[in-house]
Amino acid sequence: MVSWLISRCCVLVSAGLAVTLPTAASARAASNLSGVSGPRVRCVARNHRNDTRARRMAHAIDARLAGRLSSVGLKETDTQTGITCTYHQAWHFYAASVIKVTILAALLRKAQEQHRHLTATERRLAWLMITQSDNSAATALWDDVGFSHMQHFLDLAKMRQTKLARAWGLSLITAHDEVLVLKAISRRNRILSKASRGYARYLMAHVIASQRWGVPAGAPASVKVHVKNGWLPYPVSSDWEINSIGFFTGRRPHRVYIVAMLTHANPSMTYGIETIEDVAQVIHRRLNPGRRSAIGESVPSPTWGIPDEPIPPRASRQQHSCAISGSLRTSAAHWC
Predict the structure, then answer these.
(1) pLDDT digits (tens, 9 = 90+) for 137-148
(2) 288 Cβ neighbours under 8 A, 6+ residues apart
(3) Residue range of the domain that includes 61
(4) Is residue 116 part of a domain?
(5) What average pLDDT score do residues 199-214 get?
(6) How confident is the model at residue 15 (pLDDT cuts 50, 70, 90)?
(7) How far is CA 254 from the centre of its chain?
């Protein structure tokens, strides 16, 4: 690990300004100085019928996040209840392996524009990349798609907060944008064809058991689970980036709900997974009242604690460091 890297920071875009947010400890200190204590999750319903459920859902998620060391970015949206929950949805986090979903989506879009099917090699690599989180496969497809086509997909999907890095795992993502890529895969749209969406959904439904932790925790048997996770200690070994994104589909009635949860400053991989699963269980229970959970909390795997990907030995100082202060500050354009 390169010793000169300064602790990472996040960026929240608001009213056209970039607001630099410090690490978890200094962010909490800043909240205390401003008179804000504890999490402030916001859940809103599309119609007044679900206002009470949305309010209770926000309070329940707040309670699960209270006292956690993790820095968290969260967004949830549901087509059936019309409830959307957000918490620091525009904060930036290192992507780790959840960027592999965007690589897959960009690959499918590129093939569509070239009026062709994926090659046998691309399909093999896509299977390995998504279902087993294979890094060599991801790098091969990242190179195959190309930086310009990756950015092209982001533009089409309106993922304006995502900042690609030359090392794909160190790209900066937000919960807001991760919901957008999952919408492109899970719902009808003009970016990905029905066949492309079906293929991506199939891969995300077949992730190996040891990597199906995170947002699926608490899901009932009435929904089908599609998930992709990422885990990386960066920039130091005690700062685990633990990310989990997924969507859940039901047939009767048809519905899709999406959950993207990104976390940083976790003292261990297990701690970050616990933070995500505590919140996920609340979301599933509140969106599916009266339905018993079919997926419990994850059992630690022997692979937990092993980084999902190698850390680039010569990371860019400019890209992966930023000025850290004890309180929030406004900057004209500081992306870190």
Answers:
(1) 999 999 999 999
(2) 220, 222, 223
(3) 44-323
(4) yes
(5) 97
(6) very low
(7) 24
State which H helix or E strand residue 181 sits in: helix 175-186
- Confidence tier at 323 by pLDDT (50, 70, 90): very low
Q: What is the rounded CA–CA span in Å between residue 224 and residue 253?
A: 13
Amino acid identity at 288: N
Q: Kindly state whether residue 335 falls inside one of the protein's structural domains.
A: no
Specify which residues 261 forms β-bridges with. 74, 244
Q: Does 282 score more than 50 pLDDT?
A: yes
Question: Where would I find the beta strands (DSSP E) of 79-223?
Answer: 83-87, 93-94, 172-173
The token pair that represents 65 in the structure block: 């996040």
Q: How far apart are CA 158 and CA 203, in angstroms?
A: 23
Six-digit token pair at 119? Answer: 């090659």
Q: How many alpha carbons lie under 13 Å from residue 8 in its C-beta half-sphere?
A: 29
Packing angle of the helix pair 99-113, 147-156 (nearest 10 deg):
90
Task: Determine the Cα–Cα distance for residues 18 and 16; give it in Å rounded to an integer.
Answer: 7
Q: What is d(CA 301, CA 116) in angstroms, rounded to the nearest whole number?
A: 39
Amino acid at 270: T
Q: Residue 91, Cβ neighbours under 10 Å: how many? A: 26
What are the φ and ψ backbone dihedral angles of 263, each rounded to 5 degrees? -140, 150
Number of domains into which the chain is organized: 1
Residue 211 belongs to a domain: yes
Structure-token match 């119609």, residue found = 47
- pLDDT, tens digit, 9 for 90 and up, residues 101-142: 999 999 999 999 999 999 999 999 999 999 999 999 999 999
Dist. CA 86–CA 67, nearest whole Å: 18
Q: Which residue has the tokens 């990242």?
A: 142
The CATH number covering residue 172 comes to: 3.40.710.10
Q: Which residue type occupies 49?
A: R
The number of beta carbons lying within 10 Å of the beta carbon of residue 16 is 5
DSSP string, 5-63: PPPP-EEEEETTEEEEE--HHHHHHHHHHTT--S---EEEESSGGGHHHHHHHHHHHHH
The three-class DSSP label of residue 192 is coil
Determine, yes or no, domain membership for 237: yes
- How many helices (H) and strands (E) would you count in the chain? 9, 11
